[in-house]
Amino acid sequence: EISTMNLKLVPAVLALTCTSAAGSRFNETFAKLLMGIDAATLCPDPNVKAWNCSRCDTGIFPPHGVEAMILVTLGSRDSEPDLMAIVGAIESEQTILLAIRGSKTVEDYIYDALFYQDLYTFSGNFSNDGWMARVHAGFSDAYLALGPDDVGDGKVTVALRKVFAQPKFKDYKLVLTGHSLGASVANLFAGSLLVNNNTFAMGIPRPTALYTFGQPRTGEPLFAQLFAKAAAAQKMDHFRVVNKHDIVPHIPPMFPFANTTVYHHVANEVWLTPPNGVPKICDGSGEDPSCSASVPPTQWTINDHVSYFGLDANPCSV
Question: What is the model's pTM?
Answer without folding.
Answer: 0.89
